[in-house]
Amino acid sequence: MEEYPQILIVHTNYDKISAIADFLKNNGFLVKHIVSPLEAFKLIPTLDHVVGYLLQKESKPLSAYKMIDYIKTELRQNKIFIVISENKTDNLSNVEEELADFELPENPNKKDLDKLLLIFSGTQKIQTNKEKIYSLDYLKEVSDNNLDFIQESLELFKESLIKDLEDLEFNLKLGAYKEIRSLAHRIKPSFAMLCNQKGVKICDEITYDSEDSELPKLISELKNTYLEMINLIKSDFPNLK
After folding, report:
1. For residues 223 and 226, what is the distance between their CA atoms, to the nearest angstrom?
2. pLDDT digit string (tens) for 219-234?
3. How far, in Å, CA of 24 to CA of 38, rounded?
4. Closest by CA position to 20, among listed 132, 103, 129
5. CB atoms inside a 10 Å sphere around CB 160
6. Residue 127 class from Cβ within 10 Å (0-12 exposed, 13-18 middle, 19+ buried)?
């Protein structure tokens, strides 16, 4: 069973953020719009599957950063917090930088929307009773949540793995089993990078625990695992090159 997560937008003028709301809806989110912070505070405890908030920077009577502080301290929620401003600025105080995950202009460009989607990556669908197909947790940790680095890593995974899998199939036709095992050992870190344990396990089987006769089936399973990952990554990141 899959449940689609919710994002709450608090903004006085829906028309100004309708493009952002439509973008999120088109990427698998349920979007709820509220005009005032006080109305939002009453609603938040009743909502299920909320993964983040988009908050108007200069809202009244509370600014976005005061809303974030209240939601974290009083409502005890630690979600994703995006601040929507009339004009994006990098002149944030240290406290504001720590409170918000990203500041988004009301009229975002493609790069802004790509970053927004990347921040919410992994929350598009809540998977239950199912092994994770991929996760960005490791990439976020090693890059200190550098969005450009994460995007580049996904593109590298997409392009390099398909070539490596083609090489596996080519060497299978040649009966070059030693080369196949060497390739599988080299491929393994790419699956580990995206926390796909199934791919890691198959690579280990090919490298250490398989008979030559078992390699065609294992290579096919590895390719299917890659395709399953890429299909989900493309769904989560439609603008990926």
Report:
1. 5
2. 999 999 999 999 888 8
3. 24
4. 103
5. 12
6. middle
Token representation of residue 231: 């299909």
CA-based radius of gyration for the chain: 22
- Spatial separation of the C-alpha atoms in residues 154 and 117, rounded to whole Å: 14
Per-residue pLDDT tens for 1-25?
Answer: 345 678 999 999 999 999 999 888 8
Query: What's this model's pTM, rounded to 2 decimal places?
Result: 0.55
Between CA 86 and CA 106 the distance in angstroms is 5
Question: 215-236 and 197-204 are packed helices; what angle lies between their axes, rounded to 10 degrees?
Answer: 160
Omega before residue 37 within 30° of 0, cis: no
- Helix, strand, or coil here: 88? coil
Q: How far apart are CA 113 and CA 70, in angstroms?
A: 26
Domain ranges of the chain: 2-127, 137-236
The letter for the amino acid at 150 is I
User: DSSP alpha helices (H): ranges in 100-196?
Assistant: 110-119, 137-142, 147-174, 177-193
CATH topology of domain 2-127: Rossmann fold (3.40.50)
Burial label for 66, CB within 10 Å (0-12, 13-18, 19+), is: middle
Cα-based distances in Å from 6 to 28, 53, 121, 177: 9, 9, 13, 49
- Tally of CA atoms within 13 A in the half-sphere of 197 that contains its CB: 3
